[in-house]
Fold:
Amino acid sequence: MSAVVSRREFLGSAAAAGSLVVAFHIPDAAAQGAAKTAPEINAWVVVQPDETVVIRIARSEMGQGTLTGLAQLVAEELECDWARVTTEYPTPGQNLARNRAWGNFSTGGSRGIRESQEYVRKGGAAARMMLVQAAADGWKVPAAECTVAKGVITHAASRRSVSYGKVAAAAAKLTPPSDVPLKDPKDWKLAGQRLARLDTVDKTNGRQIYGTDLQLPGMLNAAIRACPVFGGKLRGVDTAAVEKMPGVKKVVRVGDNAVAVVADTWWRAKKAVDALQPDWDYGANATVQQADIDATLKAGLDAPQAAVGNSNGDVKTALAGAAKRIEAVYAYPHQNHATMETMNATAKWTPERCEVWTPTQNGEAALAAAAEAAGMKPAQCEVYKIHLGGGFGRRGAIHDWVRQAVLIAKELPGTPVKLIWSREEDMTQGRYHPITQCKLQAGLDAAGNITALHMRISGQSILAGVFPQNVRDGRDPVQFQGLNNGGGEAMIGYSFPHLLVDHAMRNPHVPPGFWRGVNLNQNTIYLECFLDEVAHATGQDPLALRRKLMAGHPKHLAVLNAAAERAGWGTPAPDVGGQKVYRGLAQTHGFGSYVAACAEVSVSADGALKIHRIVAATDPGHAVNPQQIEAQVEGSFVYGLAAALYGECTVKDGRIVQANFDTYPSLRIAEMPKVETIVMPSGGFWGGVGEPTIAVAAPAVLNAIFAATGVRVRTLPLKNQSLKRA
Structure:
């Protein structure tokens, strides 16, 4: 391996990197001391002499509850005392040194539990088997005669018992079992229960350390400004005046498009970087306006070439011969992740080693970015993962802030430097939810049945901007989330005699990223709102129309029926404050789970919207912690409704206009509706819960708005639309 490797090369070779030797780091001092004395049963489980059970979690905790859910699954198979469970993160460097013993560190796409559940459960089960075997060996009895409960092993015939902590050292010396059976979920005791989250207390009492809180001896602070036009460069900057400002240690050019100031405090660094007057080369993108992007996408709606995502039958012929045709065009804007904690990382660089402390959704990707920026082999680098103050996809695939932090630290060897992006930098240097438009055409027979549906999506490809090697023949498979024919990940919930879903790729210069819910968000709006249009245009009940189309999709139908029935579909909603209340429906399948929602809204005569209630049903296959699922559904509606009401990033002179929360607001507490969650796991598969429900928030509300007003909103956000009755 060369001294300098790209992120792609590093991640691609990760599975073969078992020979790397990197020191194992546990940030918490108490845990670090315990790790030196407590034996490791296996990669997932450490049992301390005081019976504390340390469960290692590879996936990132960013508020979604993955840390607790994974710990529940390990503890379930381990049969330990849940009251004695604590957790810690292994590092990506140690993961590679141990031939990726902890598997994938990536935490996105609602995959934290569903893609690691089997091997973490086996880790817990194997540890239990080794602990029991150690006790049985000491008693010279068959392990099959021993039972275990809450970390105590018992041999009933001889009336002997011993705790895990007493046999942990002996168990750690045993060869791990090769055959590790797992419990049937129907026999779960801990998993499936509404257990309190393990990280809540530290978050409420202030003990939890986030990246912006981190303090290291001798640490300096950095603030940064990058060229506001994507693709622009830094020609030069006069640093003389700034270098004399209080606390300033150094002004650093970062790559070819940014400049940073390092100072004793972050505020002094921020004031100094604001005082700089960089000479930017804005480049050709400086002439791009929002109207240009919109026009490009509009042209793609009728372009002759498009990549096919899903098709059956002959849509063109069926539409031409239809008794009636209905057509509509929808549009969805760029949106920012807007995490509460802005991008940040602390880096320490010496000629021999580079260390980074950062909130990240993918420790291995962060390590790759650090190694590349440091100009070192991965074995010379390490990343210490910190809880995230929000991720939503921004801290996953792209680690631009880590690269910047390392480049800055290289200019001050041996000194830890903490880089924190300002809110303005975070808003204008993001990786944005892709912008798209969609033309939908439905062909109907004389009875009003849909005989053909064509969905033409025109717009941005995330993969083209993030992982272009995954685009094949102009086709981005992620583009068709929620519209796929089979595959188990994001399947369409309807059957049409003739169907065509295709995508005309049109990529503006604004960099895209994986935004919580990804393409499922706009695709669900397009399909669910258009079906509502068809229902009203043909005089059909929106639920009845969907039920006809869902005969071959029982799991989709089950969640839709559950939400509709709980909400009282078919009976008038009670008035609220003298205002009539109306309902709207939406359903989808994404990230392996089936979800549906029924929204209740009122709209005043002057167009003021109030969302009163949303009933949501979700079938994730297995429910590890129903309380966390409910919290994630509620949080999904906060995020999804904020996006529908306010979320819009626009371009002027090549740059993002919205630079702070005054122009990019979030949902306020008073605007949040009551949420009723129906968790209905049907078993047999593992779905995600952090993202799919976001997708049904907007279409359910938009359909309810139409029921209330007759106004059909096809372009988001709602803040730009009038809801006065048609």
